[in-house]
Amino acid sequence: MTLTGSQYTITSGDYTAVITEQGAALRSLRRGGIPLILEHDPDQLTPAAAGQLLIPWPNRIDHGEYTFDGTAQKLPITEAALDNAIHGLTRWESWSLLEITESAVTLGHRLLGRPGYPFRLDLTARYALAATAAQPVSTLNSATAPGLTVTITATNRGPVPAPYGHGAHPYLTVGIPVDECTVSLPTTHYQPVDPRMIPSGPPLPVAGSPYDLPTPLGPLHLDTAFTTHGSAHAIPVTNPTHSEVHLTGAGRTVTLWADPAHPWLQLYTADGLPPALRRTALAVEPMTCPANAFNTGIDLIHLAPGATFEGSWGILAQL
């Protein structure tokens, strides 16, 4: 047994992925033996949330406090330096194997009620690989996309509505420092934050700002959420399009796509990682809601008893 539990390897064509029992996390993704994400050893504690799933909220909750349906809640503080609850409750937990084939694996976790989150969710994470398709990425969906597709499903098995959001934290790499890379993404607005990384106002236009991509990143520091709408709410989940982020450098491009269930994308230039890993990869985090959504309500999902929410995202490469 490894520190991160059982390791599940799936393959299709020249793609290979490894998913861990701990957190149902993506530990490795390669095409033709070339890493597409920041990897780590199975006996190493996952660094900086690399490849982890962020459930039942992505990003941060201010002071770990929120009120839902008139009841105040207090979550454990998991980001002590900034006094926040960060990245949910399941990323260090053991997930059970539900199904595995050569090219796909599904893991499940039962999130039971606890202080700060007195709700019960049944969760599944399905990772599936497919050989490269001929169609342009923009014409694909979770059923036909090449490379890796990840589908997260949450069902409320409790007696009352539950606040819900999810995200994921893969770090994309093309094998060179991100300073030498170009990033392109389709969003029009970015989310300003205060020194504790809590949203400090409505999204602002990227046009004319340092976040007006694509452009070579250079020394630009990113730990920033982007969206395609400048109002208090992002695009509705019924929007028929998906979004794509392309990291390009050294003649290679790695793409993360996300379906309309994820109207927010957090980009992080890995400045806080250990020196050997610092700025070697770009975290691209598809999110169903922004930071502190349990308080602001922005794109927060109110999951009714018996209701299910599902969202998909994926990664592919041009080498």
The end-to-end span amounts to: 34 Å
The coarse overall form would be globular
> Which sequence of strands runs across the widest sheet?
10-11-12-13-27-23-22-17-20
Please state the CA-atom Rg, rounded to the nearest Å: 18 Å
* SS-based class: mainly beta
Task: Give the overall average pLDDT.
Answer: 92
Helix content, binned percent = under 10%
Question: Care to count the β-strands?
Answer: 27
Largest sheet composition: 9 strands, antiparallel
Number of helices: 1
Strand/helix succession: EEEEEEEEEEEEEEEEEEEEEEEEEHEE
Share in β-strands? 35-45%
Low-confidence stretches: 231-240
Give a nutshell description of this structure.
The protein is built from 1 helix and 27 strands. It has 319 residues and is mainly beta.
Describe this structure in words.
Mean pLDDT is 92; it is low at 231-240. This protein is mainly β. It is globular, with a radius of gyration of 18 Å. The strands form seven sheets. A nine-stranded antiparallel β-sheet has the order 10-11-12-13-27-23-22-17-20, with no helix packed on it. A six-stranded antiparallel β-sheet has the order 16-25-24-21-18-19, with no helix packed on it. A hairpin with a 3-residue loop joins strand 10 and strand 11. It starts with 6 loop residues before the first strand and ends with a strand. Helix content is 1%, strand content 41%.
